[in-house]
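**User:**
My hope is that you can spare some time for a protein that puzzles me. This is the protein in question:
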Amino acid sequence: MHNLLILYNPYYQHDVIEQHINILLQQEVQTNATVAFGKIRSKLRDYEHPFEEILQQIYASVDEDNPLQLFLTDYASMYVAKVIKVLPGVQDVNAPAYYKEKSLDVENWFIISDIRKIVHGAFKQVRDQVLGNFTTPNFGGHHFAVYGSQYVYPLVIDMDEPINYFEEDSEFRFFTEIFKSEQRLEIKQRLIDHRFGDDVFYSLHPNTQDALISAEIEFLSNKNDPLYDFTAVVIHLSKAFEKELYLFLRKLFIYLIDKEDKLKHINYTVQGIEFTLNDYRTHKPNIGTNRYLLKNPTIKQAINDHINKYALKYFIFGSITQNITTIQPIRNEAAHGESTPYQICKNLRDMVVGIGQSGAICDFIRFGKLIDS
């Protein structure tokens, strides 16, 4: 999947993102909704894009089965759009009226089927958590420079930690949730202020953030009802745990394979399909497979040989294994329709979020930073 970055200038239109989202929301069948985002030619640029040939190759490869991730930022906020087609600027497209009303010179139209908010109104988080993960292959492969760069946009980017922001294979569309209720915003801020802090929360995968917020809303709304079925809360918490577990172990296994190339040939099976450890980079296994891999003697020996920090070893061999053992049967029962009582849900929430104890989610981020440090 290719990734491009565009800076949008509020000078042209103060509500750029909102106008595009409104067009998506107004369409009758939102699973097929699209809107065109125009890359406006800068009045200060009197030369052709120096990497136009590369961009055209990327544009030609884009379709619904091979979408492009287009990051849109004004530095205060960051959004990512799922692009399914790129058209020349002369095309007649479904776009906000301000493009024509202001006679803006559009170079290309990016046909968007979904938009996701990553950070809103927080420059530090945009700079450190999102842009800090970007490298610029056409500018020496260096990390993105907020100040003093000579970038020309659209800018081709890679990511230190690759993220597919639209990996969910369903008819759900993220743009329907961008204008979220005040309750969701309040719960998100509460989780940041009282549990995770800005740096940890914005280091989490966006799917993890959404799952934690949804779990917290439903738990707090129903915790005083002794007859309530907390299955949905368990499912949300399990998704958050499994996502961050996968990202942590992916980083760990990539580090170990770099130390011992033979590790990439270790075999494991998921639902009758054979994989090797090298496949872990792109294929997220089920939770039970993770426990199986951590018990593999060759992997265990590699961890002992190449992980020097005792606390990190204890987290891998002790805390992760214990947490998987705790969460797997609860998650499996919930997934198969078994009712989940309050106390079991509360215990799981305490473990995952970190209520009265060290939380699994925070630990994945904290110990993940120690892997290659």
Summary: The chain has two domains: 3-176, 180-368. The chain is about 45% helix and 15% strand. The chain has a mean pLDDT of 92.
